[in-house]
Amino acid sequence: MKLKKALALGMFLCVGSPLLALTPSELMCDLLTKPGWVPVPDEHPQFSWCFKDGEQGDYQTAYQIQVAKTTAGFRAEKPDLWDSGKVASGQSLFVTYAGQPLPPNASICWRVRVWDRHGRAGEWSQNVSFLTAVELGDNQAIRYPLKQTKIKPVSIMTNSEGRVFVDFGKAAFGWLELTPQSPERYAGSFIFHVGEKAIDKTVDRQPGGTIRYAKITGALTQPSVYRLPFLADKRNTSEKAGAIVLPPEIGAIMPFRYVEAEETPFPITKESLQQIAITYPFDDTTSAFVSSDRTLDRIYSFCKYSIKATTFAGVYVDGDRERIPYEADAYINQLGHYGVDREFTLARYSHEHLMRYPTWPTEWKQHSVMMAWADWMYTGNTQSLVRCYEQLKREKALIQHARTTDGLLVTSRDKNPEKPDIRDIVDWPGSERDNFDFKPVNAVVNAFFCQNISQMAEMADAVGRTNDAVVFRALAVHVKSAFNTAFYDMKRGCYVDGEGSSHASLHANMLPLAFGLVPESERDRVADFVVSRGMACSVYGAQYLLEGLFEAGREDAAIALMTSQAERSWSNMLKEGSTIALEAWGQKFKSNLDWNHAWGAAPANIIPRYVLGVRPLTPGFGKVLIRPQSGSLEAQGIVPTVRGPVKVGVRQKKNVSYKLMLEIPVNMTARLELPPLPVRDGELTFDGHDAKPVFKDGRLLFDNVVSGKHTIEWKAK
């Protein structure tokens, strides 16, 4: 079967690479992939780079960095701020500046060159500049200013009432601009209806929930671009309530896709009416995905755009109704952002914002540990981890709420004067909990606890807290054992919701499956139970349901859920008319839902992380896991990483052939895990040569695969 659009991504064929010396590209200062857009306050910034050339299996053996006030210093080979000289090192991420004190409020230039595995020096990179802040000091989480993009209508037509109906194709947060096309026709009144939802070429005036609609009236008084005045919504602009207040230059905005012109002083054209979309800077070209299933492709595009569109606040927020950051929302948003763009600043900024302004649910606090771990693993940088470690240990790991007998957490569903910061949520809205039976010691918060403690052990090592690491590691083993003793029902082959409960919900089972808590001997039984429950959870819970199914090797079931046409599905979100992921599966499931929640866009991270199978094995993708789980589908895609794009392509015919095509960036090695194949009944080759893989959990394992293009192919005899 041939993939449509395959040529758009390019075929990943294993061909001989030209003998080129390495040349650095995609230079980054601190976490900024777009140098020069925002001042850097760090007096010792860190430099990183990827590579655009190199032969098969190449890697860096040395580097040289030069930093100067102007490029004239480079032309004379006399940089006035720093010349590192040739440094024998394979480090290409976060090399710390060690030159003269940087001048504040200045534009600084830098460049780098490297030596390849043969000791050959490559060309200098392009010269890149960055701005220093007015005051230089300690490093901190920084972010870009928001971006304004002009979007022209995709269609303009006249509806049955004789009004002009405009469709911009997708909803976006922003405003409308009117541009008179002739000086003599600029004055006059206007009436516009603007909204996210439409019915029969008419903007829906009563869309329900908190789906947005506004009637805008006024008059043009000058022959220039005119911004239509959207009114601020008190529900989502109150800083006292925790809402993110947008900068003055952005002002009041709302999400909308459609415009209906009831009255206008001049004809509406694609030039006279435009949508100004507000987003965080986003590069659509860094990721891609196509498969042999059109529905899955559509869901990927839908969720990818959802990640982009919901960055409008400059921090991850829950959606338009509140515009408040929440940890669980932000974590799913973070993973999705990593999956579709090579961008790390907004995730870090959002995480550290939530460390300062936490929310109340037990599991949301636990997601702060997960956000810190993901930031470290995807970037390889420990600066944020160092800043946050003590607070994570003290407030987010929740070890102070563990009972002494077995280490399990004791929490509460309701407000408790003795433990005001601990209130379990399980899922949201409450109707999506699969009748979860709340108990003081329950499987959901303790599954997160097990995951957190394991992550805290790794992060303690990363920041040099070796004693903490030993304690956390021992506690993780202890709590995992206690978890299975307390909650696993051996007779039924599933986990119960809590101590003293006989009820077994989807949530109590999908989380231990996702976090690797299920004993190997019982994994199939628990997976069978999880599959039997279907999508008995919210769009938030779907993140862990899909993770659990993929981790258990049930990719066909997971993909079936992502491509389902049922009410609880992403297809249903599209059927309801949204172009951004919803807060719930549909209005039926949450009467006050909004149409712009990134926590409803789990496939944006699930597809690159599991269907294509690209995940970091070591911090900063020094080693990458490539375990494609496309089930019976063919698939191909590009996954961005801090070291450059990883490309994966799968071609297969059941019981006939299987081909995995890869491209791995320089300075990265990979562990490849292929699905079970009848190797004895066919021929298996790696880059054209006979291959003898190791078998692990039924999968074919190739370890320490070097950078470059590779093809692994199996053909039946």
Kindly describe this structure:
This protein has 717 residues and is an alpha+beta fold. The strands form 7 sheets. Strands 10, 11, 12, 13, 16, 17, 18 and 19 form an 8-stranded antiparallel beta sheet that branches. Strands 20-25-26-27-33-29-30 form a 7-stranded antiparallel beta sheet, with helices on one face. It is built from 15 helices and 33 strands. The model is unreliable at 4-18 (pLDDT under 50).
Please describe the structure with a list of short key phrases separated by commas or semicolons.
Glycosyltransferase; 717 residues; Immunoglobulin-like; globular; 4 domains; Jelly Rolls
Average pLDDT metric: 94
Question: How does the major sheet shape up?
Answer: 8 strands, antiparallel
The total of beta strands comes to 33
CATH architecture of the largest domain: Alpha/alpha barrel
In which range does the helix fraction lie? 10-25%
Low-pLDDT runs of 5+ residues are 4-18
Q: Give the termini separation.
A: 20 Å
Question: Counting H and I runs of at least 4 residues, what is the number of helices?
Answer: 15
Our count of domains comes out at 4
Radius of gyration: 27 Å
Instruction: Indicate the CATH topology of the largest domain.
Output: Glycosyltransferase
Structural class: alpha+beta
Question: What would CATH call the class of the largest domain?
Answer: Mainly Alpha
Overall body shape: globular
Strand content: 15-25%
Topology:
Blueprint: H1 6-9, E1 24-29, E2 40-42, E3 46-51, E4 62-68, H2 72-75, E5 82-83, E6 87-88, E7 95-96, E8 107-115, E9 128-137, E10 147-151, E11 155-158, E12 164-178, E13 188-195, E14 198-199, E15 202-203, E16 213-220, E17 226-227, E18 254-263, E19 273-279, E20 288-291, H3 294-309, H4 327-340, H5 345-356, H6 362-379, H7 383-396, H8 443-462, H9 466-487, E21 488-489, E22 494-495, H10 507-514, H11 523-533, H12 541-551, H13 555-562, H14 570-576, H15 603-611, E23 614-616, E24 623-626, E25 635-639, E26 646-653, E27 657-664, E28 669-674, E29 682-686, E30 689-690, E31 694-696, E32 699-705, E33 708-716
Parallel strand pairs: 2-9, 24-28
Antiparallel strand pairs: 1-3, 3-7, 4-5, 4-6, 4-8, 8-9, 10-19, 11-12, 12-17, 12-18, 12-19, 13-16, 13-18, 14-15, 20-25, 21-22, 23-24, 25-26, 26-27, 27-33, 28-32, 29-30, 29-33, 31-32
